[in-house]
Amino acid sequence: MSTCIITGASRGIGKQIAIKMSQTKNIDNFVIVSRNKKALDETYELMNKEKTIKICAVDLENSEMIKEIIKEIAEEFGTIDYLVNCAGYAEPQSLLETSVENWNKTFAVNVTSIFCIIKEVVKIMKKTGGKILNIASTAGSSARPGWLAYAASKAAIISMSQTISAELKEYGIKTYCISPGRCATELRRVLAPNEDPSTIMQPEDVASVVRNLLSDMETCMDGQDIIVRQQ
């Protein structure tokens, strides 16, 4: 019986990943995570009810809470086989506008919380192997004037993913990093409020890529910054 944790599952790409992954045969148990319980309930209603689905409404900025939740999941399901980190935050500002508070908040959500949850999950996952997938952004690998903290945080995710991919090979753990381009999410509307969302890539498109990477057939795409964008 395999178990998958998906953070940021209340909206956008994370929500679509939860829905699509629940239709796969290789995962039996799902844990969907976000601060927004009501939105998680909406995600749950769209998932495959033949699977076991656990809802965790928690603030991932709380490292002690992360430890408790991962321990609880491991005790309930026995193993943690897949982890998808999709939670994100953005308040786009330029260098001279960006406050220390904005910088710290962005890194707390986009980087530190992911570091903490990966560390706790790996303590369980290293016994059996598994897959970790982090959602970064093309903003992390190219200049994004006016998005300083967000772009820097996504660059950190790319670097962290590549480093832990090498570190965790000895445990049979594969680490993937996906960098979506322009995608019609709520977070994208914050970054580009005047953009027509119908003209850009949709969250379902990214979720399909994630589903393929987490399949039993994928064996050679780990350790890379995988760009996903609509031409």
Automatic annotation (TrEMBL):
Q: What protein family is recorded?
A: Belongs to the short-chain dehydrogenases/reductases (SDR) family.
Single GO MF annotation: 3-oxoacyl-[acyl-carrier-protein] reductase (NADPH) activity
Q: Give the EC number.
A: 1.1.1.100
Protein encoded by which gene: fabG_4
A Pfam entry, by short name = adh_short
Top-level taxonomic group:
Bacteria
Q: Where are the transmembrane segments?
A: none
Q: What is this protein called?
A: 3-oxoacyl-[acyl-carrier-protein] reductase FabG
Alphabetized PROSITE patterns for the sequence: ADH_SHORT
Q: What class of enzyme is it?
A: oxidoreductase
Question: Which keywords are on file for this protein?
Answer: Oxidoreductase
